Amino acid sequence: MLSKNQLKLVRSLELKKNRKRENLFVAEGPKVVGDLLRAGFLPHSIFMVEGGVLHIEDCGCMVQTVTDDELRRLSFLQHPQEVLAVFHIPSSPRQRPNSGGPSLSLALDGVQDPGNVGTIVRIADWFGIHAIYCSPDTADVYSPKVVQATMGSLAHVPIIYIDLVELLSHATCPVYGTLLDGDDIYRQPLSEEGIIVMGNEGNGISEAVRPLITKRLLIPNFHAGNETAESLNVAIATAITCSEFRRRG
Amino acid sequence: MLSKNQLKLVRSLELKKNRKRENLFVAEGPKVVGDLLRAGFLPHSIFMVEGGVLHIEDCGCMVQTVTDDELRRLSFLQHPQEVLAVFHIPSSPRQRPNSGGPSLSLALDGVQDPGNVGTIVRIADWFGIHAIYCSPDTADVYSPKVVQATMGSLAHVPIIYIDLVELLSHATCPVYGTLLDGDDIYRQPLSEEGIIVMGNEGNGISEAVRPLITKRLLIPNFHAGNETAESLNVAIATAITCSEFRRRG
């Protein structure tokens, strides 16, 4: 039986200020919850419908059985997925295990859309990106929408909210960014180590960060003189950039 | 003054069966509507708030002034954007103008999510893709959600709904597809001409289409032996594939 306080706590975690105060976030579905548990994220509470399955031996906390209706009331999804868990937000960024070799990281400079941030985390996971640094005005990766959009990849990539100007001023590796006046990414030497800055959906890389870019890149379009798309979505640009760095490694 | 019948017609175009019967679709915002008008799409009706601007000399039909409240009732957007237009669905696919040179096309085999289809149209536009062939079970490109997600790129890329088995059986160019048992895309020869098949979000390329793929490709991941993302979103995979074909051109 779900208590009123449990319901209230879970629902309150939709808002960033509450997540920050409680230091908790919500994840849903056997895949995402399972991936987070396996990666060592600490559960605060787990709610599962009867017959639900988590493919993990030790959850690290009691699993409370709820009815379909109770899960529906807890869930942030249109179609709730058997299990919902509340996790502690990790206090220090976890290292990507055995991510040996030269490290390539991403820095998100004011990426606003939760779907874009979630997709970027998934891309970073695929391409073995070492860490994602996020400016404080980037969408919160622990919001229910972003957690779900990462499809479990949140479990694999360390994510660090940090002042990017501070970070990049002290960087000893090349700092890449895609800018309108950059050089054709397909024809530039790209190092194996570096930080790739991705900017805001509407305004691109912020004025404060722009002077810290040491290698300006451009993803060229192929319009043959005709009208074409004016820009690429930031997640799409991230995918193309990561692919181009990795294929040369 | 907006009539009841006008409101009813526009709202009815949310459903595919109504779009098919009326042969009409809705587009919103000065950018998307302007791009479609400039590309020669035929308007059926245009509604604009007072003070709204369309940067085009001749719209091809009367522009009816509506109030903010009337636009809100017409619109499919959370934040309506000054102008909403109803267009005729083109009866025959328009050619990409001056798209000379070897042609590279996409074939979407059951891509379900409207956001993915919209993003793919935008990517195709960026990379100068010749045409997009869609299986009948691919999300309808004329649904309001897809039209908006294309950000105007719908105006630039011919889109053809067609039986893919029929089309690909008669293809004289290489037919590419990304499959789990494919060869590393970064290390394969890729022709300048060809059709690239992208599959359904959950099930990939359908069983009927799979035998028609002549070059099986794989986008490798870079996990260094650790757990990683299990798959890439279909729009992300499309972007990486198009980028890889184009950079070699």
Tell me what you see in this structure.
2 copies of one chain form a homodimer. Chain A is of the alpha/beta class and 249 residues long. Chain A has 2 domains: 4-88, Ribosomal protein L30/S12 (60s Ribosomal Protein L30, Chain: A), CATH 3.30.1330.30; 104-247, SPOUT methyltransferase, trefoil knot domain (Alpha/beta knot, 3-Layer(aba) Sandwich). Chain A is built from 8 helices and 10 strands. Chain A has helices at residues 4-12, 16-22, 30-38, 68-74, 114-126, 144-149, 164-169, 234-247; strands spanning 24-28, 43-49, 63-66, 83-88, 104-109, 132-134, 159-161, 175-184, 194-199, 215-218. The longest helix of chain A has 14 residues, at 234-247. The relative contact order of chain A is 0.15.
List the topology elements.
The structure is a homodimer of 249-residue chains.
Chain A (H helix, E strand, L loop, with lengths): L3 H9 L3 H7 L1 E5 L1 H9 L4 E7 L13 E4 L1 H7 L8 E6 L15 E6 L4 H13 L5 E3 L9 H6 L9 E3 L2 H6 L5 E10 L9 E6 L15 E4 L15 H14 L2
Parallel strand pairs in A: 2-3, 5-6, 5-9, 6-7, 8-9, 8-10
Antiparallel strand pairs in A: 1-4, 2-4
